[in-house]
Design a protein that fits this description.
Blueprint: E1 10-12, E2 14-16, E3 26-28, E4 54-55, H1 62-69, H2 77-91, E5 97-101, H3 106-122, H4 124-127, E6 130-134, H5 139-149, E7 152-155, H6 192-199, E8 208-211, H7 216-222, H8 228-238, E9 251-252, H9 258-265, H10 276-284, H11 296-302, H12 309-320, H13 323-327, H14 341-357, E10 361-363
Parallel strand pairs: 3-10, 5-6, 5-8, 6-7, 8-9
Antiparallel strand pairs: 1-2, 1-4
Helix pairs in contact: 2-3, 2-9, 2-10, 3-10
Length: about 375
């Protein structure tokens, strides 16, 4: 799979793609914290929360240069699906447990259907074991998809009250460890749930290959519209989601394949206003058309993106009693567990507590 260069390298006491590898023993926090650390994206900034550490500016790689200079050919919905399928086929590593991060949405059902078709074409031995995992409250629709696809699936935290569903993700002591630096997004269903399942003895991060639908929205919606691919490549470099720590070390994001991008760019999006991924699902995974995706609005209404009062109380208490929390008082409000400035502060507080315990000196 030929994907573009989106590597972020941190620069501090040395250079490394791992934020914590370059932290000097004496650190100074920006006060206030850089605004771009509070959001998914806010300008081309290279600061981190510490004055002593920055990260590299975006530079256009050879893959991007070639892509931006190439002529985009018209493509059909079926051709996009076929190119995605070929990308996944080339990436597939027989002999491993293949985990597909799955929701009720169009992007993940496209990937799982491709896996099913590849098994039918190349045989069950080539395909190996496939396990789909749903991680954020879409279990009812997910199970319908699994039954229709005849695939194995796990619903993470099934039966747990919605507002307690993300409890694992908010443990203060190791909150910082989920990120390669600092992030203002508190729950990542692709990675947090897998780590929890491993802690429970249900999964192992050894000998696995994971597939996700990351990048599908951006590739299919943003990059094909007025902002264009020049903006898209820069956006990916500065994307805060990069800072999540992956569970396991073998991940494939098919929607970042350059060939997929070229195919998507060649689609005429004007005749229909539906998302391109919906059009792909409707046309190429039509046997699942009767199972609609679960809208984010419904998940919000069900309470999957808020915290139970008791959990929120523990989160606030942990913050208030931390070294950083005493320096920077913040009221944490869980109206939605999405990008919010206070989760940046919670992450910084958790990280500082860990660093101080290890003997680092931190000033504000």
């Amino acid at each position: 799979m030929k994907s573009f260069n989106r590597d972020v390298v941190f620069i501090g006491d040395g250079v490394s793609p791992n934020f914590h590898d370059v932290l000097p023993k004496e650190l100074t926090l920006h006060n206030p914290l850089p605004a771009h650390t509070h959001e998914s994206f806010n300008g081309y900034k290279h600061e981190t929360v510490f004055k002593e550490v920055t990260f590299n500016k975006y530079s256009r790689g050879e893959v991007e240069k070639e892509f931006l200079s190439s002529k985009i050919k018209p493509t059909t919905i079926q051709e996009i699906y076929d190119i995605l399928k070929e990308s996944i086929r080339q990436s597939w590593e027989p002999g491993k447990l293949h985990i597909i991060g799955h929701s009720s949405g169009y992007d993940s059902r496209i990937i799982s259907n491709i896996a099913k078709e590849l098994g039918e074409e190349y045989g069950s031995e080539w395909l190996g074991e496939v396990l789909c995992i749903e991680g954020l409250g879409e279990g009812d629709r997910f199970k319908e998809i699994m039954e229709a696809q005849e695939l194995n699936g796990i619903v993470y935290n099934e039966g747990v009250a919605p507002a307690l569903h993300p409890e694992y993700s908010f443990r203060f002591k190791d909150f910082w460890s989920r990120y390669n630096g600092v992030n203002s997004f508190p729950v990542n269903q692709w990675y947090d749930s897998y780590q929890d399942l491993e802690d429970q003895g249900i999964l192992s991060s050894e000998n696995v290959q994971c597939f996700s639908g990351y990048g599908a929205n951006e590739t299919m919606e943003y990059a094909t519209k007025k902002k264009g691919f020049k903006w898209y490549f820069r956006w990916h470099h500065y994307l805060q989601l990069q800072k999540f720590k992956l569970w396991g070390d073998n991940w494939v994001h098919p929607f970042w394949d350059i060939n997929v991008m070229k195919a998507v760019a060649g689609v005429n999006v004007r005749p229909k206003k539906e998302r391109i991924s919906k059009r792909i699902a409707d046309e190429c995974v039509s046997h699942l058309r009767h199972i609609p995706q679960l809208p984010t609005k419904v998940l919000n209404e069900r309470g999957y993106r808020t915290l139970a009062p008791g959990l929120l109380f523990e989160v606030q208490k942990a913050y208030d009693t931390s070294w950083y929390g005493q320096q920077v008082p913040v009221k944490i409000m869980a109206d939605l567990t999405t990008y919010r400035p206070w989760w940046t502060h919670y992450c910084v507080a958790s990280m500082c507590e860990s660093l101080l315990e290890k003997g680092y000196e931190i000033k504000i």
